[in-house]
Each structure stands twice: as structure tokens, then as C-alpha cells.
Write a structure and sequence with these properties.
single chain; mainly alpha; Cytochrome Bc1 Complex, Chain D, domain 2; binds heme C
Length: 104
């Protein structure tokens, strides 16, 4: 293997690792933030009158939180929750809840 090819391979491995670590941190931060959600939303994915939020597509999850924040979606409880959340916090929550599978 030529030196350049080896360097390129090493660089791309580093990049993949860095991305993985970054994603893990996001999920961990989301898990930390989720404490204020699971008092209402069931982690099992059960709908007890409050909709399930596990296993969602992360982008759709952020969109929905933003729509509560902007009051486009009308629900007082969720508006109160979403208003103080930053986009980064929403993305972390989305990443975390996306990793959880609803129990059948
Ligand atoms: C006080 C109870 C309560 C808390 C705490 C709460 N939620 Fe909710 N959430 C609700 C209710 C009730 C709805 C349904 C609102 C509606 O009809 O639009 C909802 C809806 C949602 C939806 C949309 C679900 C759907 O099927 O459209 C998402 C996503 C969501 N919540 C995320 C969160 C996150 C993330 C947190 C924590 C940061 C959180 N919620 C905290 C009560 C709560």
C-alpha cells in the first residue's frame, strides 16, 4: 500500500470514530434531559392518554417540538416544555428517544 493511501485510510477511520463518539454523546445528553419527559411519556411506548414518543424519526421529532415552541401546535403542557428547549437540546432528545424501541 502506498503511503498516501495508508494516510487516507487512517484519516477516514479517525473521522468515523469521531462521528460515532459525537453521536453517543448526543444520545447520553438526551437521556439526561429526558428525565423531564418520562414523568408523562411512557418509555415502554405505551399510550396512556399521552402519545408515545419512542422510536421516532429524529428529524420529525425535532419538527414536532419546534411546532410546540412556536405554538403552531396547540397544547399548553407541551408548549411549556418546548419553549425553554434549545435546538441542540431537542436534537439530543430526538437522538435519545429514537434509540428506544417500543415494547410490543
Ligand atoms: C406534563 C406532561 C408532559 C411532559 C412532562 C412532556 N410531555 Fe410531551 N406530550 C404531552 C401531551 C399531553 C402530548 C399530546 C399533546 C397534543 O395533543 O398535541 C404530548 C406530545 C408530545 C409529542 C408529540 C407526540 C405526537 O404523537 O404527536 C412529542 C414529540 C413530545 N410530547 C415530546 C416530549 C418531550 C421530548 C418531553 C420532555 C422534554 C415531553 N414531551 C414532556 C405531555 C407531556
Amino acid at each position: 500500500m502506498g503511503l498516501l493511501i495508508r494516510l487516507a485510510a487512517a484519516a477516514s477511520t479517525t473521522l468515523v470514530l469521531a462521528t460515532a463518539v459525537h453521536a453517543d454523546e448526543k444520545v447520553e445528553y438526551g437521556e439526561y434531559l429526558s428525565g423531564s419527559c418520562v414523568t408523562c411519556h411512557q418509555l415502554s411506548g405505551a399510550d396512556n392518554g399521552i402519545p408515545a414518543i419512542v422510536g421516532w424519526d429524529a428529524e420529525a421529532f425535532v419538527e414536532v417540538l419546534l411546532s410546540y415552541k412556536t405554538k403552531e401546535r396547540d397544547n399548553k403542557a407541551m408548549q411549556t416544555i418546548a419553549i425553554p428547549l434549545s435546538k441542540e437540546e431537542m436534537e439530543a432528545l430526538a437522538a435519545y428517544f429514537a434509540t428506544i424501541k417500543a415494547k410490543e
